[in-house]
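Homework help thread (please don't just give me the answer)

Our assignment gives two proteins as sequence + structure token strings and asks us to describe the second one. The first is just a warm-up. Here they are:
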Amino acid sequence: MNPETLKEICLPGDPGSASRARDEVREWLGEDHPAYEAVRLVVSELVTNAVRHARPGVTGRAAVDPLVLRLVAYGGLLRVEVMDAGLTIEAPRVRADPACLLTEGGRGLAIVSELSGGNWGYRTHERRPGRTVWCELPAAPPPSGEPAPDVSAALGRALP
């Protein structure tokens, strides 16, 4: 099945972009879409991470390179992609340190991993700096009898 890009937007690499990205998801999917809450949460986490980690230590105009948020549908899944022009060499990872539960940040990819059932990853851009971090979520609720991902549990769940 061919993937279909549902929507794509370019956002500035600044902290206000996470809020704007959440607003875009509401407009794109609508609050009544079965995957709305999960998509909105992973978009917020991935955009926040891109803003925070794309160019650590860089200030001024170079620190706000644009991001691209893309929503793709295929095979019963919604794929969220966030592309940045970052220079960091550290790979995105789920923090396994229990101490991060006591900090304000550091749980974003754990939430993304939980909501996507571990179906997330990243790729570096070959001919330009940066990377794309992505995750895939079911576009519809699971068949009856299977539990749906619990967004509220993902927010407070302890890391393994």
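The one we have to describe:
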Amino acid sequence: MATVDRFRRPAQHEELLNDLQGKNGPFRTLVEALMFAAALGQRKNRREPFNKPGEAIRLALMDGRQYGDVLIDMLAAVEIQDDPKILADDRLDERVRIFEEYANGGLNYIRGELNTAPTRDLDLLVGNLVMEALTSAPAEADEVAEIMSSADLDW
């Protein structure tokens, strides 16, 4: 069974993604912006499907980013906790879809914050979101930390 070699980005957020990455954005690359959006989407419990994709991105670019492929796997493991086979090679398509939908949810969240903020400063907004994540526990138990601690790993 052939698996995906690309992941989609939501067409409705092309302008926001362009603002988030590049010379004036808080992220150097589009992949980094999408990784942040996916992590934010999971943290805010916003997994949102989309129908109209923009230009696809090679999945290999995730492997070139520190923790890129791990992020895709961890999002799927947290989302589908009762099925460890979600991490099987033949289920990559499903893991990528989960990543895409969390990224869309994160981008929708960022768009909402920008629409209600007195300023459209993306650097400030991203910085505030990172500080919020670092200084406060999520409303629900941190499932990733729970999984990691239950593994009893000796780092």
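TA reply:
I won't write it for you, but here's a hint about the kind of observation we're looking for: The first strand starts at residue 6 and ends at 7.
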